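To whoever is on call:

I kicked off a structure prediction for a single chain this morning and the downstream step that reads the tokens threw a length-mismatch warning. I double-checked the sequence; it's 319 residues and nothing unusual in it as far as I can see. Pasting both halves so you can look.
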Amino acid sequence: MTKIEDAIANEAEDEISPKTPKQRLWNVVKTILKIGVTSALLYWVFSKVPFSEVKGRLLHANYWWMLAGVVAYFFSMIFSSWRLLSFFKSIDLKLDPRFNFRLYLLGIFYNLLLPGGIGGDGYKIYLLHKNYHFPTKKVFWAILFDRLSGLWAIGLIIVALKIFIPQIEINIAVPLSIFLVGSVIYYIVVKVFFKDFTKHFFKGHAKAILVQSCQVIAIICVLMGQDFHGKFAPYLLSFLLSALAAVVPITVGGAGAREYIFKVLSGVFNMNVGLAVFLSISFYLISLLVALSGLYYVLRPKRLEEGLPMTADNKDMAK
């Protein structure tokens, strides 16, 4: 795995400060490709769903409920940075929670608003290695397990939602068994090959449930803002499945991929397609609004660690 880890570190550094014309060209090409894929998916979606309907829903939404959705999503980011802190502690990387949260906001800014950049995870690897001289591979694995815990939590909630969706003609015992067996195998792999990450394994995954629950609550708030009185489960399940699709880094912050999944699943679960696409657009706008807070640390990078006490652990790492 060393070659992979070194490649990630080198890519992170090259994309932040590209050294050759070839590297700069590749960054531009990636940006164009992501924008192209995003545009193509959105074009397809809005060729099937009138944009005017989505726009009308946004203009006539209950903005108090929309604000509640923003608050719920912001709390999911707080819990998410808290979750990441658990995995950092597993590798004895002891960051001040305030610095970790600021770095997390900066990371989601890179993920959503810099389509050709390294993304938030790559930037964290680069910054922590550069400033703290902490081994790149350890940071890489901590961030990877942080992401895996999020996927695990999404899987858990998807299985739970199956109970409320009769359109899926599969006995609940089937997906539940698959999830439980998969979880056991997952833990055994961690126990055997990544023993350090068993220190805070259960704590980190419990926090992951909080993260995904807050995001589900954000979607419920958006639905309530549309005076919705139908079945929530199909929309929530579609949201979680679209979140899995958005993980693939081929679009700008998941835009286009989420809308595509919502559009396709609206026919499967008999959802209002206009409302389904509106939910996707709303979630992107909410995440975009929160991500903008990370711009402050792009413009004022020295503020990342301003006012933080230098602990003995951090002094050792900074040498």
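Update from on-call: the warning came from a stale cache, not from the record. Cleared it. Sanity check on the structure: Residues 311-319 have pLDDT under 50 and may be disordered.
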